[in-house]
């Protein structure tokens, strides 16, 4: 007697995550290329900055140099920490997290296609978590790509004083910064269901948190810097000291809490 095997439907445990990555691949590749190109372009200027940048930085007010971390631009780690990984890349990463996080649930809800998704054997929790998992995967891709770009420039741009592991540590911190802002955008989208609101609020919070991290000490509000994700991202100087496990843990826990709040609200809100 021959047993008949009934074909099983494709699992929904990962299909939303993989489909999100597939359908968004052009946008994700564009963001990855843009962030990596910006990082590489600024990193390539290090030899010129090492030769004359220190003197130029001394012309700036001390408070501004402290705020922008420009007291050691003559060293490779100091230059990269103040420009590439201290300003340009994290701000682009923040906007990436906001843009992708806005698509986790708010884009479908706003366009009216969420009902079509929910018609499948898929819970709201699974939808949100799988979409967020796709964001985490994209963030990891950006981190790896930037790391490879820094290694490619390490010789030509005279960045050899920064070790391979230290570059990796900085890129791990970068990945978690993206995830943190993506989690914030995911939570806001789960509450509001409006993509424009998600991007705007996340971007405003990001800019304010960057300003708090950079300038709080200049106005006597040192404690405010500890409320900013940027503090846990860069202040431990990963390019010199490697991974800061405390900072990484704070960013990871904050992301998990934000996503959990988003899931709770998404499950208890009328999406009609």
Automatic annotation (TrEMBL):
Q: What is this protein called?
A: ABC transporter permease subunit
Give me the segments passing through the membrane.
28-46, 76-96, 132-155, 167-191, 198-225, 245-264
Q: Which organism is it from?
A: Nocardia halotolerans
Name the domain of life. Answer: Bacteria
- PROSITE patterns, sorted: TAT
The keyword Transmembrane is assigned to this record: yes
Keyword Membrane applies: yes
Sorted alphabetically, the keyword list is: Membrane, Transmembrane, Transmembrane helix
């Amino acid at each position: 007697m021959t047993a008949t095997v009934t074909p099983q439907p494709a699992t929904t445990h990962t299909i939303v995550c993989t489909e999100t990555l597939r359908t968004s691949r052009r946008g994700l590749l564009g963001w990855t290329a843009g962030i990596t190109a910006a990082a590489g372009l600024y990193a390539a200027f290090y030899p010129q900055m090492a030769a004359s940048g220190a003197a130029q930085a001394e012309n700036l007010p001390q408070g501004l140099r402290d705020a922008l971390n420009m007291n050691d631009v003559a060293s490779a780690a100091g230059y990269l920490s103040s420009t590439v990984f201290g300003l340009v890349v994290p701000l682009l990463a923040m906007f990436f997290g906001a843009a992708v996080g806005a698509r986790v649930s708010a884009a479908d809800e706003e366009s009216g296609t969420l009902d079509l998704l929910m018609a499948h054997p898929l819970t709201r929790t699974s939808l949100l978590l799988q979409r967020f998992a796709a964001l985490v995967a994209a963030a990891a891709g950006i981190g790896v790509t930037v790391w490879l770009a820094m290694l490619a420039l390490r010789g030509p741009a005279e960045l050899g004083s920064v070790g391979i592991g230290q570059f990796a540590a900085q890129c791990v911190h970068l990945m978690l910064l993206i995830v943190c802002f993506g989690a914030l955008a995911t939570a806001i989208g789960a509450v509001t269901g409006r993509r424009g609101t998600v991007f705007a609020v996340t971007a405003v919070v990001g800019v304010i948190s960057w300003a708090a991290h950079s300038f709080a000490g200049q106005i006597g509000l040192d404690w405010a810097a500890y409320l900013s994700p940027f503090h846990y991202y860069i202040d431990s100087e990963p390019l010199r000291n490697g991974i800061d496990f405390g900072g990484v843990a704070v960013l990871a826990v904050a992301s998990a809490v934000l996503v959990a709040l988003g899931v709770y609200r998404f499950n208890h809100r009328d999406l009609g």
